[in-house]
Amino acid sequence: MSGVLLGDGEWMRRALELAPRGWGHTAPNPMVGAVIVNDGRVVGEGWHTEYGAPHAEVEALRQAGEAARGATAYVTLEPCAHHGKTPPCTDALIAAGVRRVVFAASDPNPKARGGGDVLHAAGIEVRSGVEVQAARDQNAVFFHAHSPEGERRPFVALKLALSADAKIGDRDRRSVWITGEEARAETHRLRAGFEAVAVGIGTALADDPQLTVRGETIPRIPPARVVFDRGLRLPVESKLARSAGEVPVVAVAGAEASAERERALEAAGVQVLRASEGVEQTLETLREAGFRSMFVEGGAEIAGALLAAGVVDRLYLFYAPLFLGPRGLDPFAALESPPIAEARRWRRIATQAFGADTLVTLARE
Questions:
Q1: What is the pTM for the complete model shown?
Q2: The 293-296 sheet, strands edge to edge
């Protein structure tokens, strides 16, 4: 393995900028970016555009052509060493004659890992761990899926639209947008990167949402719509039930829910899953049904329950510049109030402006 060379971090950050161009299209594969640099000059760039398409390294090597010989390849994930939908990227890098490969994070997939060792054995200089945290954050769903926890439950992202004093609704509980159009457009883009978009039954009844992805980013596979609905109160005439034939809808019910209501919803095309009492058991049921990731959009009860259970992996907090006061709807009201020294700390990934609103993205430590 090589020592530290100036510039590795800068080139890797460029590769990290390219990778998200595959958002919503690469799953169950990760998003990956690649940059080929020869004599201090970028000669090729690429990213994994879609599941089943050539990987980022291959795209970058194609652009580089003969200029890849003797170059350094910067890749956000360890190059794969196995035959999947495409041939091993290690073969392509070796054949192209690159001198050096720098990758950010090791591949957690046991079927694909080991590419660094293959390259090293072929005489290529290898360095790993450059911008590793950023790379893991970028593909948090993928890394979660290949962890022991990911085998039990989906990756859970919780999105909340909040006033500046952290309320998600006014005192009258009216269904009114808190954030502006730019923030709502970003919410649609975020939905495209998950296998399911979920709400509690209270939100489903109050807002009658569609929970589909609308906007510039069209996912390869539209995320299923999930409603946490222990009593199966979702109306068959709701927008969700009426569109179940177009994009899947799943109602997660309790053991006590009416069999008659189950039959009515299933006749409308809604899949009903029966789950045991408790947040963790409910998530295990969803994972057994095949969901590896879930984007939860509230409301207050389900948000509080997920946070209290400690199963939220990522927080997307959209803050609008307004105040709703102490009688506003507080999604954190049900949480315990530990001493500051014992409170869970979150790690900030990004802070972004969307119109007048601010998105703060946090990761669970």
A1: 0.94
A2: 271-274, 249-253, 224-228, 196-200, 293-296, 155-163, 314-320, 357-364, 346-354
